[in-house]
């Protein structure tokens, strides 16, 4: 059994997609980050960094195994099941693109969203910096996907799942764009193919039964951006 600590945001969505694709038995454990539950002791025992997603594999080697960070979780689950890792000769390419997403496209997309929607007005340099860097990472991926069905080799892998989690939020990253993927036709074609998979519709339903907080009030800001309030 996998205990899956979840909030409906891009990085947990990647792991949810793997779980739905693989058919692994899992229990969704809601972590309402807008209420600050990620900072509570019970969750910090799972992820000391206080971020979702995280998992606890109750059937891990040597007993319960915790894994945090979406890229680490995807690798762990792929190795556990022997699925979605592509071909052995393609492992260097898989790792390269997985970490490109985990250290580049994802974080810059997240910062672009933050400075366009959550930061105080007047930070034009930061808004431009992160929006342009997000777009640059999209351009790298778009160029790579020309003539390809999947990001790595000829197989659907955890790299595609990882990218789907953030590309699904392109309308947030590319604020003001009516068609956020218009400038990235190869990503657009790739995304449509991934998004049509039956597991994606099941992934979108994960957590729907839980009433996650949706109000962006002072409590939410302090929960999501605690460093801004450090004394």
Care to give the gist of this entry?
Pfam families: GST_C_2 (PF13410), GST_N_2 (PF13409). The protein has 10 helices and 4 strands; from the N terminus they run βαβαββαααααααα. The protein is an alpha+beta fold.
Describe the structure.
This is Glutathione S-transferase family protein. It comes from Allomesorhizobium camelthorni. Residues 1-85 form the GST N-terminal domain. It holds the Pfam family GST_N_2. Residues 87-215 form the GST C-terminal domain. There is one protein chain. The protein is an alpha+beta fold. It folds into 2 domains: 2-83 and 202-229, Glutaredoxin; 88-196, Glutathione S-transferase Yfyf (Class Pi), Chain A, domain 2, CATH 1.20.1050. 52% of the residues lie in helices and 8% in strands. The chain contains 10 helices and 4 strands. Strands 2-1-3-4 form a 4-stranded mixed beta sheet, with helices on one face. Helix 4 runs antiparallel to helix 5 and helix 5 (124-145) packs across helix 8. The relative contact order is 0.16. The mean pLDDT is 96.
At the fold tier of CATH, the topology name of the largest domain is Glutaredoxin
Q: Going by CATH, what is the homologous superfamily of the largest domain?
A: Glutaredoxin
Q: Would you count the extended β strands for me?
A: 4
**Strand order, biggest sheet?**
2-1-3-4
Protein name: Glutathione S-transferase family protein
Domain GST C-terminal: 87-215
Domain GST N-terminal: 1-85
């Amino acid at each position: 059994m996998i205990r899956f600590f979840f909030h409906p945001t891009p990085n947990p969505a990647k792991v949810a997609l793997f779980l739905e694709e693989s058919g692994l038995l899992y229990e969704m454990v809601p972590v309402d980050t807008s209420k600050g539950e990620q900072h509570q002791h019970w969750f910090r025992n799972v992820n000391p960094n206080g971020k979702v997603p995280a998992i606890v594999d109750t059937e891990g080697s040597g007993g319960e195994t915790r894994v945090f960070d979406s890229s680490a979780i995807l690798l762990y689950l792929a190795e556990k099941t022997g699925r979605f890792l592509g071909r052995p000769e393609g492992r260097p390419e898989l790792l390269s693109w997985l970490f490109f997403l985990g250290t580049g496209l994802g974080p810059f997309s997240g910062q672009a969203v933050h400075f366009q929607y959550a930061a105080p007005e007047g930070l034009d340099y930061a808004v431009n910096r992160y929006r342009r860097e997000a777009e640059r990472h999209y351009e790298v991926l778009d160029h790579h996907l020309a003539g390809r069905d999947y990001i790595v080799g000829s197989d659907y892998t955890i790299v595609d799942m990882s990218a789907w989690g953030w590309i699904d939020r392109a309308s947030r990253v590319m604020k003001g764009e009516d068609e956020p993927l218009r400038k990235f036709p190869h990503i657009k074609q790739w995304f449509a193919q991934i998004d049509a998979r039956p597991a994606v519709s099941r992934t979108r339903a994960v957590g729907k039964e839980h009433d996650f907080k949706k109000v962006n009030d002072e409590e939410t800001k302090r929960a999501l951006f605690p460093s801004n309030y450090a004394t």
